[in-house]
TrEMBL record:
Keywords: Membrane, Transmembrane, Transmembrane helix. This is General stress protein 17M-like domain-containing protein. The chain crosses the membrane at residues 73-96, 102-125. Residues 24-98 form the General stress protein 17M-like domain. It comes from the Bacteria. Pfam families: YflT. It comes from Nakamurella leprariae.
Amino acid sequence: MTSPMGFRASATVPNLPTPPTGFVVARYPTYAQAQNAVEHLVRNDFSIQDVTIVGSDLQMVERVTGRLTAKKLAAAGAASGAWMGLFVGLLMSFFAPVQSSLLILILAAIAIGAIFGAVMGWLGFSLAKGRRDFTSASQVVARLYDVLCQPRTAEQARDLLAKMELGRRG
């Protein structure tokens, strides 16, 4: 099993989803702060395999990134269609009897693909008019992030994180 960064996961990580165990040693409003706390533990030679970051009070956030227009969708469809046309044109060029017309064949396939893609993009927008006229990006975020630690090392983790907080304030 690998982590999101591609490293081999520890043998202690369960293969099936299980609830996290341990004591809450710190609570942070952002993932970056929780990650910074874990990095502090790593820098202090803490037994890091005992640590888990748990996000709670999950919510789905959808950020609007732009407005959809018929012109934008037709242009995107034309670009996609042109690529498909290039692919079809190259395939057809393998079976063309005359070598001198290869460029014309490929360019014609690109043009036909672009026109077809533009029409399909415009048509798709026209048929869905008013239902969703914007683009967006969605992600799941947590309101709070708890740093959990196994009971055998929880007190040591709390002490290290308390020293980190004192170092910031002092």
